Amino acid sequence: MGNNYSHLEKEIGSDQLPANEHYFGLVNFGNTCYCNSVLQALYFCRPFRDRVLQFKQLQKNNKKESLLTCLADLFYSIASQKKKVGTIAPKKFITRLRKEYDLFDNFMQQDAHEFLNYLLNRVSELLQEKQGNKGKINGAENQNKTEPTWVEDLFQGTFTNETRCLTCETVSSKDEDFLDLSVDVEQNTSITHCLRGFSSMETLSDEHKYYCEVCGTKQEAQKRMRVKKLPKILALHLKRFKYMEQLNRFTKLSHRVLFTFELRLFETSDDAYNPDRMYDLVAVVIHIGSTLNRGHYVSIVKSDGFWLLFDDDVVDKIDPSAIEDFYGMSSADMQQKTSETGYILFYQSRE
Amino acid sequence: MASKSEGGGKDDINFIKDKFTTREGTYILAHWSEYTKPTRLQTSGSTNTPVRASFINVSGDPSPERICFNIGKELYVYVYKGVKKAADLTKPVDRRVYKATLPTCHDFNKIWVSKESLRLLVGFSHGQIQVTDPMRKEISSDPLKRELNKFFNEEKLIDKSKVTCIKWIPGQPDHFLVSYASGQLYVYNDELPCGPTPPTYQPFKQGDGYSIHTCKTKSTRNPLYRWVIGQGAINEFAFSPCARYLAVVSQDGFLRVFHYDSMELVGSMRSYFGGLLCVCWSPDSKFLVCGGEDDLVTVYSFNEKRVVCRGQGHRSWVSVVAFDPYTSVFSSDNSELRNGTKVQDVQATVANGNQSNHQKPPADLSQTSLQSSGSCVTTYRFGSVGQDTFLCLWDLTEDVIQQPINTRTRTSILLSNPNSVSATLPRCNNVQKTNSLLSSNDISGDGNAHPVGNSVMGNSTHHFATLSLGERKEITEKKEHKRNFSLSSKSSEKNNMLKSNHVKHIDESIKVLGTCSCPRLDEVPLLEPVVCEKISSERLTELVFREDCIVTACQEGIVNTWARPGRVVSDRDQ
């Protein structure tokens, strides 16, 4: 195994390796690649890593173990390695995860997106509990209002749900927060198109009619969702697993969906604060295989200008032009390739 | 090709169209004129090199047209019979199969051409270049009859990245220009050797975001010039029809226009986001259209040095854009373009008269202008194809061209009244001059000459906005420019390139936003396509407008011909 790391060092050139960066593969504890791939992607979302390490600094005396302390310990152990490349076993984190969440307490392959969701929400909860404790000390106890933590500061955006009653033309809008956006995928499209699909106008009719407060009855209405607050880190989940009722299982949509290194959003609301924010792609979680339960996850991350592929304990440098292999498959490719597709995209705001 | 399934209605998005209708009439897929490999069955699988097509007319033959296209590792030349006769796939003029490298692009020499001899220029995925004659194959002892077969950069000493675009230089039949994924562009003379050693370069000229080098040798050798342009790959370049300007689009999202002979940067524009993938000139050399990774087509006015409008219709990256000179209607007053093209001002392609066919509101007004030649209601027609398998046709009309940039009130930087387009116009030109002056002298590289910033400063409407931004960034800007220059000086090392790439981006993209090089989304009109149809099951890679037809090609390796309205006799149809 040692060969791998010297191989990576040789490939990048040991003098080219950035001074304060560490590339450490994560050992697989039996189908834990869903976890490893997301952890690597998050580690290379620099603002997230910085906050986790900051938390670690502040927590030195706290003995109480939580998923967040395990995450902080893991990130810290990577960041404080003497060597620049190597392998680490995230044993404590995995054990804690399995203990905390029944669904992950087995040796089955899990959905990386579900894990990301769980992790971000759990970290936010843990931080809120801490803030809550402080609040109690200050006597300013407020149970209903949850203070945003740095998780929200980094990942949370807001979209406006605008509904227009087709009878009285009244437009009502409701804001909703999100930590990531899940978008439908179509064959031979781009992530930009998928995002536009997310915001496209939808007509509510028949059993889906909308209760209009002005009319006081259920009415046909048009609905669309537009992003109002753009997050610092935009996590995009491609809905590649579709439940097929006839088959009674999830099938994978391996559609070819192109993603760019740069991204701006088109469908922002009129009152959006920063509608033309420019994003850079920093990490992608990739699903390999044709089914949800029997696949493999890897991730590609951008670090100091070059791209790296993390496949559990193996780390490789890849040429940016090789990333197009992860867009997915068009109909002509179906027979020849295994499905290796971008699944979660992490875009970081440039400002 | 998976064509019309029984269930698929016309509104079904997955229905592959074999005809579409514009204001001129209906375009029909000429099924009999499908060019591909002789045997369709032996698919070598789809590769990622786009299938491109080149045409040449060898006068003096009953079927004078030749078509060249590449599929994977193969290169084909056929007699092209257009919409008139069925394609004969059993008899290719030439077929070549390459090993270990794939043909990526090609161009016929328009001067060295006869019934017996052609000069075909081919670029390859591993950097090599070939000049060959597809008509002559026999190896003869008579050197005059021997097959023309020259290789350049065969040992990859000059550049080992992928050739992205290759073209003979207009007016110089022995010179060609070739661009690479490495971000470099080379000028070759096909009479000169490449030399047995890698070239040593010396700086020749430097400007903002680009530098030009020559070889440091006693005897003249190839390449004659090396241009290093922008950050990252050069995706395509195009000479203006008047042959004086060279437009280059790059992965860094920039379109850069150079005066070719003086090597001055005379215009630039930035995509909304992502790389620009393709570029083309209007027949009168006044406008440029670019397509890119933002799924948009962007129209740039070369005269006014500003983005005129964007077009939204594609569902994925735009791979090819092309003007349709036969449907475009514009004034032939090219007083400022000395060697202006001889494109007729009005080409009423289709006097179909069948006006009941599918009329869109803006079409009505141009219908009349199409017929009454000489009237000056300008409408440019251009097309685009993309990775989404869709063909879009767009009309660029006078009202859009003349609409000034809409500076938003919320930016509250409005200085002069926004209606004064004519007033800002000459100023733009003015600035352009000072600008090129600056950039050419600016070899010291302290990064003051900024065409983007400067041309904007000239436009009074934006003056204050840019100024304040510039001031804020001044210090960091200088620093970053130095890094940028160190790159252009000499480094083919990808790592270095990517690194400085990263640094530079931060500066550039944010500063340009909201200027006439990259207006905000609501600052310029957003066009909708007049036609937007799925015409293939695979991503589209080629689009050529010809007098009687439109030619498209897809990644699978099928070249299709679409007969223009009225160009197919009805009983010939299918």
What this model shows, in words?
The complex is a heterodimer of chains A (351) and B (574). With 351 residues, chain A is α+β, with helices and mostly antiparallel strands. Helices cover 28% and strands 30% of the residues of chain A. Chain A has one domain (2-140, 148-349): Cysteine proteinases (Cathepsin B, Chain A). Chain A is built from eight helices and 20 strands. Chain B has a domain at 409-524. Chain B has helices at residues 361-371, 398-401, 421-441, 451-458, 463-489, 494-512; strands spanning 19-22, 25-29, 53-57, 65-71, 74-79, 94-97, 103-113, 118-124, 129-132, 149-152, 163-169, 172-180, 184-189, 201-207, 210-215, 225-229, 234-239, 245-250, 254-259, 264-270, 276-281, 287-292, 296-301, 306-312, 318-323, 379-386, 390-397, 526-527, 531-534, 540-545, 549-554, 558-563. In chain B, the strands form seven sheets. In chain B, strands 11-12-13-16-15-14 form a six-stranded antiparallel beta sheet. In chain B, helix 4 packs antiparallel against helix 5 (463-489). Chain A binds chain B through residues 12-13, 16, 186-190, 192-193, 256, 258, 260-264, 266, 275-276, 278, 280, 304-306, 319-321, 324, 330-333, 336, 350-351, and chain B through 2, 14, 43, 45-46, 48, 181, 253, 272-275, 293-295, 312, 315-317, 387-389, 494-495, 498-499, 501-502, 505-506, 509-510, 513, 520-521, 537-539, 555-556. Chain A: It catalyses: Thiol-dependent hydrolysis of ester, thioester, amide, peptide and isopeptide bonds formed by the C-terminal Gly of ubiquitin (a 76-residue protein attached to proteins as an intracellular targeting signal). Chain A: It is an enzyme of class 3 (hydrolase). Chain A: Keywords: Hydrolase, Protease. Chain A: Belongs to the peptidase C19 family.
